Amino acid sequence: MNILIDAFGGDNAPLEVIQGAVRAVQELGVTVTLVGAENQIRQCAEEHHLSLDGLQILHAPAVFDIHEEPSTLLKQHADSSMAVGMQALHDGNGDAFVSAGSTGALLMGATFLVKRIRGVKRAALAPILPTATTPFMLLDAGANNDCRPEMLVQFAVMGSAYMERVMGIPQPKVKLLNVGAEETKGRELDLEAYRLLEQAPVHFCGNVEARELPFGVADVVVADGFTGNIALKLYEGMGKFMGSQLKENIFAGANGKLSALLVLPKIKALTKKMDYKAVGGAMMLGVQKPVVKAHGSSDATAFFNAIRQARDCVAGDMIAAMTKFMQQEQVKKA
Fold it and tell me: Which of these, 101, 93, 40, 5, lies nearest to 305 by C-alpha position?
């Protein structure tokens, strides 16, 4: 298995990317191809005494700047590490692609270079989020602000395939993010999506309100990209808020520090559960090969886990499950 990784995507590239890739080769039994300027990759590895044994390098002279317009990836920045990597993925020179670069550009490349699975209306951004029990997948989390009901059904199918094939959850519980639990709640989009989801080949369990998300009530939560992105940002913001409040109000001062020592194991367990680095990244679901969007501030551990996530997608044959569903739907319509 060969995992392609954008060596110059993210705030900490290329050093943290290389370190994560080196660890992945050693521990995961995969081949990793670093995509980017070869001389800079070798120079960075030499300066930090990192062995590139077992790693491949695919030369790409340019870097796609996060401030660039995403659509320019395809022509003006076709020689960037992101574009070259996804073109190589499409051409069969790799099994999955990982990047911590621009989300918009990655979506553009996934759609037009890697290309969508036949029948999929839109690719979706699908992060894994922690809860009090087991994590859930939220999709779409921002790739498609305007959606049609049938697109939400496809999101549900793709999310279910991922949670079953990669996360090992049999019959993942699917819920529709809405303003109320009743099936009569929501906009026209939500009402029609609810009706279609009841008939879809997924384990649909009705609506879910945003306040219920942290309690593990669903394995897959579907929404249009506008709603999903607001939910994602609020989820992330509240996590940071609660963390800062613990430090400032509960653990401040001598007594607070003493209390912190007494509950340190529980604090560490909570921190680990909330740590995005343990997940890897958000999936770009709906395209013909696995594409993983790592967090922009990813360190070596996060890149290692993003590579592991990509490996698990390939090993779990997730794309085949999605493709099979789409083929069956096309036969029904014929």
Answer: 5
